[in-house]
Amino acid sequence: MKISEKIKELNASLPEEVSLVAVSKTKPVSDLMEAYNAGQRIFGENKIQEMVEKWEEMPKDIEWHMIGHVQTNKVKYMAPFVSLIHAVDSLKLLKEISKQAAKHDRVINCLLQIKIAAEESKFGMTEKEAVTLLISEEIKALKNVVVVGFMGMATFTDDQEQLTTEFSSLKEFYEGQQMQHSNLTILSMGMSGDYPLAIALGSNMVRVGSAIFGSRNY
Ligand SMILES: *Cc1c(COP(=O)(O)O)cnc(C)c1O
Q1: Which of 64, 120, 144, 192 is 20 to 30 A from 12, alpha carbon to alpha carbon?
Q2: Residues 177-204: pLDDT tens digits?
Q3: Cβ atoms within 10 A of the Cβ of 143, count?
Q4: Is the CB of 164 under 6 A from ligand 1?
């Protein structure tokens, strides 16, 4: 199936409240343009350099989401245009994002990445770390950044029971935190292999790459 057809089919199948982030990492601008011409306006990339190059070349009504791990010294390159950063995992990074956003008179929306996978993952915060961060005095002082939700990556497995446990735990955490923090409106979970389950378990933002653009050759 063509990229344009997949985009249309996916968007038709997703519930109204679920946003589709088309994960276009490693793919050429021509592929992204095919998705764009089919109506897609949110694209996700995991490398800042690559996202900057695509942003420069493509129409300016696109929302660019950084879905990968972010190094502090690279925040400045995306600060002029990035619309959502999915994988924030420290106060240090939030401070840098706020500092760089201020230079462009912007407020940048961020998600905290929460560890939900049973497998050992390098990135992400524990729920406890996220709670501590959200109630800290330091975060209140950051005027150019807002935490608007959470992102989670489940274990790479076909085991539906395990995926259910992982997605459900994040959904429960999200709902609990929403009662304390009114800015939390986004729960980003679900990829090509597991997005229908993630949506059934409360996700309202899915990050889908290979199911749209085909498999990646790194
Ligand atoms: C690559 C990537 C995706 C998309 O993965 P697919 O399996 O191709 O849909 C989603 N989220 C993150 C954080 C990624 O790095």
Answers
A1: 64
A2: 999 999 999 999 999 999 999 999 999 9
A3: 10
A4: no
- 67 C-beta closer than 6 A to ligand 1: yes
- Number of neighbouring beta carbons within 10 Å of residue 152: 26
Evaluate if pTM is beyond 0.90.
yes
Provide the CA 149 distance to its chain's centre, in angstroms. 10
Handedness of CA 34, 29, 17, 121 (dihedral sign): positive
DSSP state of 192: T
Length reported for the chain? 218
Q: How close is the Cα of 121 to the center of ligand 1, in Å?
A: 15
Q: Is 46 in the pocket of ligand 1 (CB under 6 A)?
A: yes
For ligand 1, say whether the CB of 70 is within 6 Å of any of its atoms: no
Q: Could you tell me the end-to-end alpha-carbon distance of the chain, in angstroms, rounded to an integer?
A: 22
Ligand 1 contact, 207 CB (< 6 A): yes
Count CA atoms within 13 Å of residue 10 on its CB side. Answer: 30
Residue 77 CA to residue 196 CA, distance in Å, equals 34
Q: Is the CB of 23 under 6 A from ligand 1?
A: yes
* pLDDT one-digit tens code per residue, 64-92: 999 999 999 999 999 999 999 999 999 99
Whole-number Å distance between alpha carbons of 151 and 154: 10
By alpha-carbon position, which residue is closest to atom 11 of ligand 1? 207
Q: Which residue has the tokens 């008179």?
A: 105
